Amino acid sequence: MSRLTAIICTVVICLLVSMAWKISYYRDNATEYKKQRDEKTQALNMANATITDMTTRQRDVAALDAKYTKELADAKAENDALQRKLDNGGRVHVKGKCPVPATAKTAITSGMGNDETIELSDVAGRNVLGIRSGIISDQTALRTLQEYINTQCLK
């Protein structure tokens, strides 16, 4: 009987060691899978946050673009209306001030005074409208870029 008991004990011990090894193996696998799942979940959350941020930025940039495109279109329409007015015989009048140096104030001669309005020739009027259009375009582009930087780049 003692030999049979020793064999049974040996078999039970082998079974217990074998089960402990398998349990440890599966536990390590479960831990590794959980770690991988957590890493993938974190990466997915980061990707979702990036997509949300990009969508918001795209929407903001589209609104910014629409705002300034409309502003440019309005300025162009106004400039075109002025151009048509000039084409139909209208004139460009400029009101200006002529700064007088302090040394010449006592000897002002007759001529154009301050706050006088002068009429420009057709060519000069067209040049003024072209310059005006360029200035408006440049100022609008500058405001657009400044707002883009402030709202998108400095976030």
Automatic annotation (TrEMBL):
The chain's coiled-coil residues are 65-92
Q: What keywords are annotated for this sequence in UniProt? A: Coiled coil
What GO biological process terms does the UniProt entry carry, in alphabetical order?
viral release from host cell by cytolysis
Its name, as the record gives it, is Bacteriophage lysis protein
